[in-house]
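pls ignore typos typing on phone
WT7 + seq
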Amino acid sequence: MRRKESLEVTEAEIAVHWQEEDYLYPSSQFIAQANMTDNGIYERFGLEYFPECYKEYADLLTWYQYWTTTLDTSDAPCWKWFVGGKINACYNCLDRHLAKYRNKAAIIYVPEPEEEPHVALTYQELYVRVNEVAAILRDFGGLKAGDRVTLHMPMVLELPITMLACARLGVIHSEVYGGFSGAACGKRIADSGSRVLITIDGYYRSGKLLDHKEKADAALKVAQESGQTIDKVLIWRRYPGKYVSETPIVDGRDHFMEDLLKDYAGEKVEPVSMPAEDPLFLMYTSGTTGTPKGCQHSTGGYLAYAAGTSKYVQDIHPEDVYWCMADIGWITGHSYIVYGPLSLGATSVMYEGVPTYPDAGRAWRIAERLGVNIFHTAPTTIRMLRKVGPDEPKKYNYHFKHMTTVGEPIEPQVWKWYYQVVGKGEAVIVDTWWQTETGGFLCSTMPAMQRMKPGSAGPAMPGIHPVIYDEEGNEIPAGAGKAGNICIQNPWPGAFQTIWGDRERYVSQYYEKYCKNKDSKDWRDWPYFTSDAAMQGQDGYYRILGRVDDVINVAGHRLGTKELESSCLIVTEVAEASVVPLADELRGRAPDVYVSLRPGYQPSKELEDAIVKAIETTIGKIARPKHVYIVPDMPKTRSGKIMRRVLAAISNKKDIGDVTTLANADIVEEIRKIVQGE
Ligand code: WT7
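k done
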């Protein structure tokens, strides 16, 4: 796994010059109502009680049959949890809540156009609709347990309905993020071997009604080229009775769900009792290289882990109004909009569109209107909201008890705005570190039990036992002031089971690097390699520095890009910062800094100097950037992540590559001109 260039200091040995932040504490009000305040949980989940400790999470669910083996390691490192157990995920999210919560909102749907009414779907109504769809999938779609079906759906109510219908039948759903292109979807169809594609005619994004059905035709073409035929395309409609796509319907292949539903009104389908270790879904994610990997998640283990972490870290009670602003097309939405919250009988808010549409106050209006008290989003969104409306939250009368940040390291400056302005100083924050592969949180504070430290994810979750290794496999202790490769020593129920159809890649990418003995059936020999660099403070808190490839080597001195970006954000005018390595004759690599400004500020030489100074004073002269470019916006993926790779290519005058999948592809040429001239 060493990088190709010969390096004096290895990836795993980044010296970290991060200033320590002061702690903040949860309010006594929050603690008084919290789901988890028992310190004994860390002891109960200690390694000496592993793996049996996870019964505590599994017992949050209703099982048809208890398991006989908690953790089966005979096929290491493909771990099997709760073997012998029988369970149905849909039953756990719906049927079992009906007696108590039949009339309670399961999902509140907020369409993007503000004049369209919200839809509050009760557990009873969701149950009815899921059953009807399950009947269609089984009887019309010909789908049965173990079959894969690809969903290419945006944030519409029909997405969780369809997912739960699949789960009811034991059909493995593979939801492809709605913003992905048809071709990207087609590749995933082919890889998963789906025969049915479920899609929608259109949806709203930034005020535009997008044609989504057109992507289905492109997807089928690409899938076909890879040898996979789709027999049926099932199409939801954004507006009942109206087809909003320009794309023609293909007779015999395309079917409107609405038409089919007429024949299945009120149908009930018994949930299929599934072996706990059978797959529930696939979630494709990109690696550093190669084609997307279909992360295969299990039924029993995954659901237990999603439920446990939703209850204790998200602190969701049935009476809360919980809003996770992620897209269900990503793992966050699967675990923390659908499966986690619904398995707990919670009310989960779902928003169709862009949080800043039609203006910077939209998110806070939704929060006020619905009485949201738990809010869950990503640093990239927080930075955007801060950029477009730094004072906007004050204008709205909402009160959060709890807020989550997830997906990338958050700069302390941004964390503090989230805390003070969005949370109004009242809400506890959890910074949850995890991955598509891990099913649920790996590190986070327990919100009522541990103090918050801006910029640090916190300690490991109960039952998760991380270790930080250098390249040679030596442990880097807490408080060493050095980062390394963070690994997890033990399996856990939420961990993916394999890469769909590619066990070899699963083993080589995640388990080979620090494996002690490839023939071993003992989990102790197979640490899980996360690909993240991290360091552990003296206080036991983990600070995640980002992927190991997001690291800049300056004169043999390792600097986390996040560390540099965080320094830039100390300058008040800066809204977003991105730092990339620029090849430098003298220093090997030098940081090139890209920043965008908050509204009302203009680029100036003074500002550039202030940014350089901020980096120099927080990290040192070694980190002095070669250039500071003030740009109108950052190139971003549709999921909102800044594409450092594109900026690095511009800085280094390298081929920029294909940027057509970016959310704002036009910005790339603008930035190129700023950096390279006409
Ligand atoms: C990568 C995983 C977590 C689900 C959504 C993203 C980074 C994630 C944090 C955090 C710092 C984080 C890591 C990880 N990451 N959460 N709280 N602090 N970094 O899932 O697309 O699979 O990305 O996101 O680098 O490896 P993903």
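The chain has 20 helices and 30 strands. The longest helix spans residues 123-140. more later
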